[in-house]
Specification:
- The chain is mainly alpha-helical and about 550 residues long.
- The chain has 22 helices and 8 strands.
- Helix 2 packs antiparallel against helix 12.
- The radius of gyration is 31 Å and the shape is elongated.
């Protein structure tokens, strides 16, 4: 264990406590359910997960979905916490089932710009929802922009002492960020407790956490019928999707930032084990939240031991410091959460995409989608945008005419390399994207029109290096293209044809086209020249 892991773990514990209290309130549960969930989730993930930064505890989005689930399933005679325990257990089983079915591969559709925009949107959402705690006013508006408007309109009623308390805590936290070796969150929590005692902040109207029951009891589950469990399972699916989107977004974003390797299926299993562990202690749903993960990253975590240390530190707080925590001002808790996310507001990753003129609108769509639609719908919108951008790029026809660099066998785009020379009477074309049903006909039409525009051309070499395989539409388009060019007096020779595509052409019965295919452009040119010499000799 390194010193960085110890410091990061203690800092994370100082963050998980205020987050737990806040997220339990969102779900309508007592704070101990979030605290126990954080302890169990961190220990379980440390044993089963792979990310060194992931801190598996209750999250804001999962708390909101849990609250909605409990609201629409008012089962008579049942305890709210007991139903939450069942939901968490079902979530754990669904995660394990998804891992067993190898569904983690679906995360490949979540591109890096999507993850960057997602991270920015999550950070902004969490920070904005901490502001009413600092201002001391209650905001009931739903939706990001309505929430912001309601917060601004409430400015005349802001509680001055609460604002001052939160602002001072935030300033100290940001100042201590310059010294990573100092556990700033814990120091600020201690200072907050001392200030509440010396300045009588509660008597001055500043809200405090209050007493927290940390008695751990065995789970007592209600007697439910199959129909009840079926309804719970249906409402748990959105919860699992949100936890997966939020957790994988956090895990993969930080792994990309630090060149770490993580596997989606392994993370699904780890989240399943963590949620089952949380259910055993009657905890809330757990996932790899972005704020806690950011705190772990900022603290310099080097291994998963950080999460275990955070859990142990939280146990120590529960055993020895809960009476003091009861006097902790809530604006201080909100400041701790905000400070942990400040560095996540860095716009440079999206600015870089803008400079590259690649995927910037996908990243912005992900960020705006999270803000406007929420975590799950925002992520789904971002994925749709990512896939739409991919399809647009693939479906937009573009072909390059190739020429050979002097003194070699390399063929490059003559439009970009003025020293490349095209062979006489031969047009070498390369589609810049794989041929498939959406672009094959238009790509080949461009090749045909470009060839006919040059009266000196007699032979067409079509380099299909981008097309590892062909679907039936692309196959038909290629065979029809060959026939149309032959009727117009042009010979077609395929180059860099992959074996799978060659096998497909043979299966379609076009033996002649298969024989007119080569493994390289240079081989194709030689084959064309040999065929031309043979025809001239016979003539």
């Amino acid at each position: 264990m390194r010193a960085n892991d110890l410091i990061a773990g203690m800092c994370v514990a100082g963050l998980m406590l205020p987050e737990g209290v806040a997220y339990a309130g969102i779900a309508g549960l007592a704070p101990q359910h979030a605290i126990f969930a954080a302890i169990a989730g961190c220990l379980a993930y440390a044993a089963a997960g792979r990310s060194r930064f992931a801190i598996v505890s209750a999250t804001s989005s999962s708390a909101a979905i849990l609250a909605a689930t409990l609201a629409v399933l008012p089962l008579p005679g049942t305890d709210r916490a007991a139903i939450a325990t069942i939901v968490v257990g079902i979530a754990g089983l669904l995660f394990l089932a998804a891992s067993a079915a190898r569904l983690g591969g679906l995360t490949g559709f979540i591109s890096r710009p999507v993850l960057r925009g997602f991270a920015l949107g999550i950070a902004i959402t969490i920070i904005i929802h901490q502001l009413p705690i600092i201002t001391g006013v209650g905001i009931s508006a739903s939706g990001f922009f309505a929430f912001c408007v309601a917060l601004a309109e409430s400015a005349p009623t802001w509680h001055v002492m609460s604002v001052v308390t939160g602002a001072i805590a935030l300033i100290i936290l940001l100042a201590l960020r310059r010294y990573p070796a100092i556990p700033g969150a814990i120091i600020v929590l201690i200072l907050g407790i001392l200030a509440a005692h010396w300045l009588n902040l509660q008597e001055r109207g500043v809200a405090v956490v209050g007493s927290v029951d940390t008695t751990l009891t065995m789970p007592s589950l209600p007697r439910l019928g199959w129909a009840d469990y079926s309804s719970l399972a249906q409402f748990t699916v959105p919860l699992v999707l949100i936890l997966f989107a939020e957790s994988w977004g956090t895990i993969r974003t930080m792994a990309l930032r630090h060149n770490d390797t993580v596997g989606a299926n392994r993370e699904l299993a780890a989240l399943g084990i963590a949620n089952l562990a949380s259910a055993l202690v009657q905890g809330m749903p757990v996932g790899a939240g972005f704020s806690a993960g950011s705190a772990s990253e900022a603290g310099g975590s080097t291994s998963r031991i950080t999460g275990a240390i955070a859990a142990i530190s939280l146990v120590a707080i529960v055993l020895f410091a809960m009476p003091l925590i009861a006097t902790l001002p809530e604006p201080v808790l909100a400041a701790v959460v905000i400070a942990a996310l400040m560095h996540a507001l860095d716009p440079n990753p999206i600015v870089r995409l803008w400079r590259l003129n690649r995927d910037q609108f996908v990243a912005l769509g992900a960020a705006v989608g999270v803000l406007v639609l929420g975590v799950l719908d925002g992520m789904l919108l971002a994925i749709v945008l990512s896939l739409a951008a991919l399809l647009q790029r693939l479906a937009t026809p573009r072909v390059a005419r190739l020429g050979r660099l002097a003194g070699g066998h390399d063929y490059v785009d003559v439009a970009r390399h003025t020293d490349a020379i095209a062979p006489p009477h031969i047009a070498i074309w390369r589609p810049t994207a794989p041929l498939f049903f959406a672009n094959a006909e238009r790509m080949l039409s461009l090749v045909a029109s470009g060839t006919r525009a040059d009266p000196t051309i007699q032979v067409v070499v079509l380099s299909l290096e981008e097309s590892y395989d062909l679907d039936s539409t692309a196959l038909d388009a290629l065979i029809e293209f060959d026939g149309a060019m032959a009727r117009s007096g042009f010979r077609v020779q395929l180059a860099r044809l992959h074996d799978r595509a060659r096998d497909l052409i043979l299966a379609a019965g076009d033996t002649d086209l298969s024989e007119r295919s080569s493994y390289s452009v240079d081989d194709a040119i030689c084959a064309v020249q040999a065929a031309t010499i043979g025809l001239e000799a016979r003539a």
